[in-house]
Amino acid sequence: MEVDNSIKESLVANNHRFMYINGKRYYVKLCEDNFNLKEIIAKRLADILGIKCANYDIIKTDDNIYYVSEDLNILGNARNLSIISAANSSLYLIWDALEKNLSGSQELMQELIQIYFFDLLFLNSDRKLHNIMLVNTISTMHLYMIDNSLLFSHDRAELFSSLARYDDLNCLSPIDWDNDKQRELNGHNLEYFLQTSAKEYIEILKSMIKLVSVEVLKKVIDDIELEYDYKIPDKSIMIKRYQDNLENIKTILESRGEYESRIHKNK
Length: 267
Description:
This protein is α+β, with helices and mostly antiparallel strands. The protein has helices at about 5-10, 40-50, 90-100, 105-120, 180-195, 200-210, 215-230, 235-255; strands at about 15-20, 25-30, 55-60, 65-70, 75-80, 130-135, 140-145. A hairpin with a 2-residue loop joins strand 1 and strand 2 (about 25-30). The radius of gyration is 19 Å and the shape is globular.
């Protein structure tokens, strides 16, 4: 986003606050993801997957990059999901709260599951209820993702993710938190969900995998680099983490007969 110097000078004082830019109200926050533009990446991926997400742009200053996101209240009454449940509630508690507190919650539950899968696929380590916005008008009600700057996390991503809380998974054996257990965490999380959920949700996950291959992710990042005339520093690392995670998820689905195996035995 192109702005004059007076706006750029105001960004520091308005970090993690709303401010008016060119007549519109934006939320401003410093790009603290090693300047990897993860909010921009997340929005592009969400668009591909049909998941609602706040729009993000960036403003470059001499020393930093700032994310700016137009206030979701322009779409309707926007509140975060902590209005219906405790901030650290699990997926299942949120699910229950939606059914109890909001009429016509079936579509919202579908959107919640899509957000859950989004975080699993792209290793988002910070999805708490204040990072999911409920936007409603007179006739519609939808969930929007905000704050996706911890995409492609490496260490213990799912432990701190939010929608999946490990105190819910009493059936699991103890996990050694001192080691890098990202794949194990994702595996436990997904296995538990697959065991306790309807078939229709597995189909949603499979369709999301088809829509965002590793090649699609590469193109998304390439397009962003071209558009912003900027080289994303951890591009190869993020792609590799996604590739490894995607293979692990496919293996879990294959083990349950839910995904076509890449190995074909000779007849």
